[in-house]
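Protocol step 4 of 5: obtain the predicted structure for the target chain.
Materials: sequence only (see below). No template structures provided, no constraints applied. The aim of this step is simply to have a reference model before the mutagenesis design in step 5. Sequence pasted as it appears in the construct record:
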Amino acid sequence: MKRRTLLGGLLAAPAIPLLARTASAKDAFHLPQVDALDVPADYWRDKVSDAAWQVLFEEDTERAGSSPLDKLYDPGTYLCAACYLPLFSSEHKFDSKTGWPSFTQPLVGHIGTRQDYTLIWPRTEYHCARCGGHQGHVFDDGPAPRGERWCNNGLALTFIPAGEPLPALRGDA
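Step 4 output (C-alpha cells):
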C-alpha cells in the first residue's frame, strides 16, 4: 500500500462517525430493489400470530431451538411471515448450531440492514425490505465462501416447499 493512501485513510477515519446516520428510523435502512410498504406495524396484527408480531414489529427474539424451521432442510423458499416477500432460498441454508434458522446469504435486494446497538457493541440487524419486519442479525462467522451467517427468527419466516406456488404478496393496503 502506498504511504499516501495509508495516511489519507488514517486522516479520514475520525470523520466516519460524523458521516454515519443514526439507525433508529426506517430511512436508516438500506432498501435496495424493493418498494417499501407505507403501512403501520399495527396493520400486521391480524395477519400474523401474536408471537410473530412481537418478533417482526417489536424486534423480539424467539427462544433458541424453538423453531421447527431450524432443522428443516427441504428444498424451497423462505418468505417474510408478514408480507410474503421471498427472503432466502433453501440452497443457502446451513446448520449454524445456534438454534435459529441460518443462511449464507439472502435473496438480493430483499433485505434492509442497519446497525443495532441494543447489546452495546454494534451488530448488523436485518429486516424485510418490503414491510420492515425484523428478521434477525447477520454475523461474519459463517461458512466459506462468503463467511456470513444470516441468523433468522423462525417466527419471522414462512417456508414454501419447492414446486408449490408462492403466495401473492400481501400488504398493499
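Step 4 remarks: Strands lie at 76-80, 86-89, 93-94, 102-103, 111-116, 123-128, 134-139, 149-152, 157-161. The chain has one domain: 22-161.
Proceed to step 5.
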